Amino acid sequence: MDDTDETIAVAAIVHEGKGSADGPLLEFVQRVQSQGRVVRGLVPGPQSDPHDCATRTVRDLEAGTVYPIGQSLGKESKACCLDPGALLKAGVVLRRAIETGADLVVVNRFGILEADGDGFSAEMLELMTRGYVVLTVVSPPYLEAWREFTGGMATELPPDPDEILTWFNATRRNASAAEDGRR
To answer: When you count CB atoms within 10 A of the terminal residue's CB, does the N or C end of the chain come out lower?
Structure first.
């Protein structure tokens, strides 16, 4: 393992059901922001109907902009209702984080599109390559794809704000120690 590997810190909150990680994720983000840390990225936004994927949104942590990411495919559709074009527009938030820096970058989900190499996967790879601390959410159907995507190097966390904060603080300490060792 070289110095680059030591400074790359990636984790996924592994959850069992739709939305079960959202509250813990948002609580964790609020705690980290209250420490004065710069947190950028996308978190779950308001959803008018939690049972209707077409009403899904993500919220930009920095600007507060809400991006609709769902599309209505009709009641009989079994296809993924995420709108790839809308995700591309929301991805500007992650690309901006890559260029402006952050103590932590949150990527709303690693889901069906990312498992297939689409969605936010390119932005996530760029963030990881550049050594950003990255946190996302993964549900069990996509856990194996997540492990493959990260080469098995990512930490898997429960949806518990205290445990997520412990991981983040340890990651920041390790990054600081690695930076001091390179000076």
So the answer is: C
Inter-CA distances, 23 with 14, 75, 76, 116, 183, Å: 13, 28, 30, 27, 39
Question: Which amino acid is residue 29, in one-letter code?
Answer: V
Structure confidence by residue, pLDDT tens digits, 29-80? 999 999 999 999 999 888 766 665 666 788 999 999 998 887 655 565 444 5
User: Where are the alpha helices (H) located in the chain, listed in sequence order?
Assistant: 3-7, 22-34, 84-90, 92-100, 112-115, 121-129, 143-149, 161-182
Domains of the chain: 3-45+100-182 (3.40.50)
Please state, as a whole number, how many other Cβ atoms lie within 10 Å of the Cβ of residue 89.
Answer: 13
The model carries a pTM of 0.85
State the burial class of residue 63 (Cβ atoms within 10 Å of its Cβ: 0-12, 13-18, 19+): exposed
Contact at 8 Å (CB) between 46 and 66? yes
Residues forming beta bridges with residue 68, ordered by sequence position: 57
d(CA 117, CA 144): 13
Angle of CA points 99, 100, 102, to nearest 5°: 115
Compute the half-sphere exposure of residue 126: CA atoms within 13 Å on the CB side of its CA: 14
